[in-house]
Amino acid sequence: MVLLTRKSEFSSAHYYWNEEWSAEENQRVFGRCANRNGHGHNYTLEVTVAGEVDPVTGFVVDLKQLKEILEDEVLRVYDHRNLNLEVPEFATRIPTTENIAISIWERLEGKIPNAQLHRVRVYEMPDLFADYYGER
Question: Which range marks the domain in which residue 8 is found?
């Protein structure tokens, strides 16, 4: 088995807010991130797939095809968007780095031919990252 990782970048805005809490509780827990006007981040996304090398093509997965899947399923949906307001899964899920990684996994799972999704890593620049390996 070979692991293959593709790296991409996107920029998004978001805010943290729990609708079940008061404004005061949101402010206490989330601080500046509870500003409903939002704030932006640059993210780095790494998607790692696992599979066997095809003896004919030499690929686990065609990197061009993987790039197109990432573009269609993630980058077109997340890049230059307000995650809370424009991305359906964040209407009910707080767009933390951890939840972004889980959501990307859910968007990609089962859509990469001839390979298994192994890891989704999202970096919130400059130095925070979340790994998601699916349900184990």
Answer: 2-132
